[in-house]
Specification:
homodimer, Tetracycline Repressor, domain 2, elongated
C-alpha cells in the first residue's frame, strides 16, 4: 500500500497545482467577482468533482492563490544582496525582481489583483503586506543608521509609503499599458526616490544603479 | 403638453440619479463582477423596468458612474488656487480635496474602484486619467520654470509618477484601514515628495504647508 501512495500523492499535488494555475489565469483575466468554479475547472483541465476534493469554494481557491503568490514573491525580497550592494541597490533589484514576476507569473499577477480588489480576502493578504513593509523597514533602518539614506520620515512610515508607491505605479501600468511600460515607470519612481532619499553627493551613483538594474 | 413635460423630465433625471447613486453603492461594496442589475435596482429603489429605460446594461451603468466620478473630481483639480499659493501648495490642497471625496462620496469611491479593477471599462477611464496627468503636468511645468520645484524627471513623467503614487497610497489605505488613515498616508507621501522636489532652503515651509492643509 505504501508503494501505491506515492503516485497518488503526486497526482494530488499535480491536481492542486493545475487548479492554482488555472484559477490564477481566470482571476487575472476577469477578476474575482466575474470568476466561477466552472471557469476555473475548465481552465485547469480538472473535473469539478476532482477540484472540489481539494477546494470547497471559490474563496478557498483565491486564498490558495494569494498564499502561493507570497510563497513566490517573498524569496525575491529575502534574496541575499550582493555583498558590495547598498541597501538602495538591493531595494531597486528587489523591485525589478517583483516587476518581472508581475509581467510573467500569472499566480503573482492574480494574487496582487485579488488582494487589492476583494475585500473578503483582505484579512488574509494584510498579513503578507505587513511582512513586506516590515522587511523593507528593517533594510531601511540599517541604511538610515549608516547614513546611506536620509529621510524626514521614520523608517516604518517610509517603508509603508514606498510599498504604496510601488503598488500604485504597477497598477497604473497595468491599467494603461498592460504592464508594457512597467520598467519605465519603476525607473521614474526610483528617480523621485533617489532625489528624496539619497544625499546629493551620491545621487549620480544611485541613478546609475537604477539605470543599470532596469537595463539588464 | 409642454406643461406636463417638465415634471416628466424631472422624474427622469431623478430616476437616473437614483440609479447612479444606488449603482455606486453596490459597485463600491462588492465590485463590478459581483454586482447584478437586480442588486442595483433594489439599492436604487427603482424598478428594473424603469432602470432599463435609461440603462441597457451593467456596463452602461458603470460607465455612467465613472463619468459622474470625473464630473465631480475634475473641478477639485481645476479649482482656482488662492493667489498667494505656490503650485506645490495647490497640489497638496487638490490631493486633500480628492481624499475627502474618496472618504465621503460613494460615486467617487465606486468610480475609482471600477476604473482600476475592470479591464472592460479601462478604455473609458484612461481618458480621464490622462486628463489628470495633463493638468498636473501643466501646473508642474509652471513651477519648474519658476524654480519652485526641481526634479531629475521631465514634468510629464513627474506628473504621471505623482498620480501613480497617489493612486497607490489611497488604495493601500482602503485595503488596510477602509481609508481611515488616508490623510496620514497622504502626509507621508507629501513628505517624500517635498524631500524629492523642493529645494532645501524652502523645505521647512513646504512641510508646514502639508501639515496645515491636512490638519484643517
Amino acid at each position: 500500500m505504501a508503494v501505491r501512495r506515492v503516485p497518488q500523492q503526486d497526482r494530488s499535488i499535480e491536481t492542486q497545482r493545475a487548479v492554482l494555475e488555472g484559477a490564477a489565469a481566470v482571476f487575472h483575466r476577469v477578476g474575482y467577482g466575474n470568476a466561477s468554479l466552472s471557469m476555473i475547472a475548465e481552465e485547469s483541465g480538472v473535473s469539478q468533482g476532482s477540484m472540489y476534493f481539494h477546494f470547497k469554494s471559490k474563496e478557498q481557491i483565491a486564498l490558495a492563490v494569494i498564499n502561493e503568490q507570497h510563497a513566490r514573491s517573498l524569496p525575491v525580497l529575502h534574496a541575499d544582496p550582493s555583498p558590495s550592494a547598498s541597501v538602495f541597490e538591493h531595494l531597486v533589484r528587489v523591485s525589478r525582481g517583483v516587476a518581472e514576476q508581475l509581467r510573467e507569473d500569472t499566480v503573482v499577477q492574480a494574487g496582487i489583483r485579488l488582494a487589492l480588489e476583494e475585500d473578503s480576502l483582505q484579512e488574509e493578504s494584510a498579513g503578507f503586506y505587513e511582512a513586506w513593509v516590515a522587511s523593507t523597514a528593517e533594510l531601511l533602518e540599517h541604511a538610515v543608521t549608516e547614513g546611506e539614506i536620509v529621510s524626514s520620515l521614520p523608517v516604518a512610515a517610509l517603508a509603508r509609503t514606498m510599498i504604496g508607491y510601488f503598488t500604485g505605479v504597477q497598477l497604473m501600468s497595468r491599467a494603461t499599458s498592460g504592464r508594457a511600460d512597467l520598467f519605465a515607470v519603476l525607473v521614474q519612481m526610483w528617480v523621485v526616490l533617489t532625489d528624496a532619499l539619497i544625499p546629493e553627493e551620491r545621487r549620480k551613483t544611485a541613478l546609475a544603479v537604477v539605470g543599470e538594474v532596469f537595463a539588464a
